[in-house]
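Subgroup meeting minutes
Present: P.N., E.W., G.H.
Scribe: E.W.

1. P.N. recapped why we're keeping a running log of single-chain structure predictions: easier to compare across weeks, and new members can see raw inputs and outputs side by side.
2. G.H. added today's entry (460 aa).
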Amino acid sequence: MPSLKRWSLSPVRCALFTAFSLYSLFTIHYPLSPTTAHASEFSILPSITVGEEYNDNVFETNNRRSDYITRLMPGIAFMYSAPFWDWDLAYNYDYRYYARNSRTGDDTHNLATKGLLRLIDDFMLLDVNDTYSRVSLNIARDRTQESLFVNQSDSNIISASPYFLFHPGSQTTVTTGYRYINVWYRDPTAVSRRDHIGYLDATYALSAKLNLTADYTYTHENSINPYDRHTPDLGFRYAYKDKSFIFCQGGYTWFSSQNGGASNDPYWNAGITHTFDTWSVILKTGVQYPVDPLSGLTKETDYTLAINKDLNRGAVGASIYYSDYKEFNTATNNPSVGTIGDISSKYGAGITAKYELTTKLIGTLTGSAESYHHRSTNSNSRRILVNPALSYTLPRDFAIALNYVFVDSYSPVTQTDTYQVNRVFLELKKSFGKVLERPPTGGGDSVSGTGEQGAGSAVR
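Output recorded in log:
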């Protein structure tokens, strides 16, 4: 398993960033063609965030240990758009200091890079993505809202996909290509993997409201449980009114494990979104096969009902949901008794709210209550999480935010799953930046269009 140093200095990464830097410098100073009609846009937004957190149960156990955590997060957001390619990058380094030495060496990185290269315009393209973040080791129970590190691992996901676009008819679009995905986890117990994927997607616009789709995907995965997978499917999306639509996509998937065994299983993704004047109702269901970091391939069945309401100065939403998890046995590759972190199913409810108290002061609230069924003990545990927050925009591109997180977890059987956490943290952020835009007709080193408003809108 590669170390962080090896990941940072990988030849692929160095080559991509070197080529990107040289091309950026070249296209800023020398237009691709003196008659090109496209402008190249460049925005860069450095930032620095400092924060202080008090956590009364750092390790989320009955033996509570509190600490004060100081965080320093320098970052940069970058966007470059040219006739040949687009780049969008966001990165920050997260340094953490625990005043009472409850933990050391907890620094991490957050990186999201997206690149689109138009090798032949509207025909041959290349997508390149890289994401580095700290993720939960259990897909059934997200711990990233509860803690900075408990049951989590640093993860890096690199993908590259050259593909072709065809338009055999005015209403038909066909996309075919190859996708390489490399997933790495720092935690040695997690399952890193490499996927080689070939795909063919076709869309037919039967009318302005109805689209028909047909897809086929072949996946070859290299990991501790290597397998081959074939996945064809058919689907449609029908927009029966403005902002209201129904969709359905379904097919069959064939797995063949190199460790022995095979299985054939259906999957689907269907739902309806109905919008009233200021209300929307969403009903969705699906069967998918995500990869759990610890146990590998998983069969997940979901049902969700959500209601959202737009307000004059904000929005509120509520949802109820149910999920069932079954692990694929590494020897037979068949869905078997769920052992995803010992959670075989969960159901819950959640709320979200956002309100603009003033033009500069925004309040948000998220909350959830979830119940988990543990197969090994045939018992349930539950978790309640509440997270109110306030953010205020200050002059000179400063912003301040105050957050509080309360977690209450209880299990009648498993003592380690019974705990409470209170987290309070205050953050101050300063942003810097400007936008550079090359005129459509070229013009050497000249640039135009500088300003903070442009920089802010260019960064996601």
